[in-house]
Specification:
The chain is mainly α. The chain is built from 11 helices and 4 strands. GO terms for molecular function: glycerol channel activity; water channel activity.
Length: about 300
Amino acid sequence: MVVVSGSLHYMERWRQNYRIKNRLIANLIAEFYATTILRFIGTGVIAQLVLSRGTANAPVQVNLGWGFAISLSVYSAWSTSGGHVNPAVTAALFILGKISFVHSLLYVVAQMFGAALGAGLSYIVYYEAINNFDGGVRALDGVNGTGFIFASFPASYLSNGGAFIDQVAGTGLLGLFVAFFCEQRNQIPLYLQPALFGVVAAMIGTCYSMNMGSPVNPASDFGPRILAVFLGYGTEMLTYHDYFFWIPLLAPVIGAVLGAYSYVFFIGFHIPDLADSRAADSSINGKNTLKATYECGVPLRQNEI
């Protein structure tokens, strides 16, 4: 608590007066805000690549930029909502028992709106640059196309089936590492986990982004995609490539769940219990009673909601 000359600092007074007591609402606001940060940074990364015709950013910089964006946005909400910022991550944490089904759905809604807002704010920043690039005529692709700034699209050689496999594979890796990081018996320090999520995102981008840009985040793709429809890009954002849009919306969720399950079945189930007094082998009547005060991806004080 901050005290200035015997009285509370005005920021602390505001906190006491205006702090949201309902944890679910606070967590949803945190997810919305953190996903806004993620997409604001990420959209800027892609905008610099597209609008400079590849001179301001290189693919390595794009992957690093997104990795940093994910780490920092997750950190921003880590102590409240758990910093999911991605429906695929939320789905993986749901099947791992870290969040309820209803709360998962609400998280996804917050993430979608946050991603749309983040992309919209970046559009405002780059509005004049986009006009200079395309002459004020919005186009999804082509020489002056800028639709890729707001959503992913497949390479010309890629079928929708290939795109589906691409997204399942990419988010399979993400779900695998979500399960790995959140397994308490691995004893990965909580303060390192957001940074590691960014490393994973950058890694996925460096190995599986050639086909369609490696979206691996339904909110980050779909929210800005819908926004772009109203920014002048039209319904082609949805109809392009035989209604491709549903693939980065659905496939990442399936991939993340499969990836999380693969880790649990092949490794997670077989990790020995911790041996010290705080560990998972403490039991009553044969039932594991370990309960951390805070866990990876788990909303703070979820039991109070």
